[in-house]
Amino acid sequence: MAFDTWGPQDLTAPAKQKLPEVPVQRGMVLEDVQSGWVGEVVRVEKSGGMHIVSLEDRRGKTRSFQLGFGFLLEGKAIKLVPPAPKEAAGAVPAGRTASGSVKVHGHRAQVAKASRIWVEGKHDAELVEKVWGDDLRVEGIVVEPLHGVDDLKAAIAGFGPGPGRKLGILVDHLVPGSKESRIAAEAMTVPGAAGNVLIVGHPYVDVWQAIRPKVLGIPSWPDVPRGVDWKTGILTAFGWPHETAEDVGLGWQRLLGAVHSYADLEASLLGRVEEVIDFLTAP
Predict the structure, then answer these.
(1) What is the C-alpha separation between 56 and 160, in angstroms, rounded?
(2) CA distance 16 to 82
(3) In what order do the strands lie in the sheet with 50-56?
(4) For residue 118, what is the enclosing H or E element?
(5) 58 vs 212 pLDDT, higher one
(6) What global pTM score does this model have?
(7) In CATH, what number does 9-81 get?
(8) Is 116-211+259-281 CATH 3.40.50?
């Protein structure tokens, strides 16, 4: 983000500004213009008659700022104001999509472009669609499930990436030293992948874990013993039916039903999806 277009009046004369007023929400990702600090809203509190917002960066470090002018949301200047009273958890602010983007009115969905977002499975695709679907339709980007990444290199080769035909790939459990990290590194050796394929991932065993536990009314996700199928173990811990594929599907729908906006998801997933969308939509 370049700051050379910001004049002194932007920060020192807020009364003259006609910036949109945006109520602060947990999970919102903001940039403080003066310091360049970027982080997720993790706490809002009133201190000494002022509202203070705490932003946690991707390294887990936190800094506090006073609400008001001098913030960027999705690269646009805003006035950050106190949260609306009694706002429902995870509720989408008026005029915004579930991803937190400004809602575009009167815009027809674009014809699908050649570029794609690939995710590991159906549940990943449904979650991305629920939160980012409005944004992706505006951009003409389609989300497709891979049903696993074991053959990722061959799948990329078959796709034939190149300029104007890009791939953004979201992988489960993409952590250093994992099987998935080795698969991703090998996949990037496909001709045409460099500069046209972006593979990112989250640290969770399954995308289910990207839903914040508090949204489900639990302190944390249950531990699943080694040797037990993860989804089966989770459903068992919840006391939900878990014996068939249909049980798993219905369990997922219950979980997905608790997600209303980006504020209901972990920042480690939010950042990666936004990174992929930026990669595919960059000029």
Answers:
(1) 38
(2) 20
(3) 21-23, 76-81, 68-73, 29-32, 38-47, 50-56, 62-66
(4) strand 116-119
(5) 212
(6) 0.61
(7) 2.30.30
(8) yes
